[in-house]
Amino acid sequence: MLLNLHKKKWTDGLMMRQFDAHSKTNEQTLQEMSNLAIKYNNALQEDGDA
């Protein structure tokens, strides 16, 4: 019984967050993905040159 005390409900995933906060998080995630793709491309080019 106590195991379910702090358990999330299935409806918690349906709750909407503030649009501004969600938009900012999406923008940061996309920027990070772009940087990772650039770094990966550079690593592939360096590996191909070696």
TrEMBL record:
Molecular function terms, GO-annotated: metal ion binding; metallopeptidase activity
**BP-aspect Gene Ontology terms:** proteolysis
Source organism, top-level taxon = Eukaryota
Alphabetized UniProt keyword annotations = Hydrolase, Metal-binding, Metalloprotease, Protease, Proteasome, Zinc
InterPro entries listed in its UniProt record: RPN11_C
* Tagged with keyword Secreted: no
Q: Which Pfam families is this protein grouped with?
A: RPN11_C
Task: List, for all copies, the residue spans of the domain called 26S proteasome regulatory subunit RPN11 C-terminal.
Answer: 13-47
The keyword Zinc is assigned to this record: yes
Q: Which GO terms describe its cellular component?
A: proteasome complex
Q: What is this protein called?
A: 26S proteasome non-ATPase regulatory subunit 14 homolog
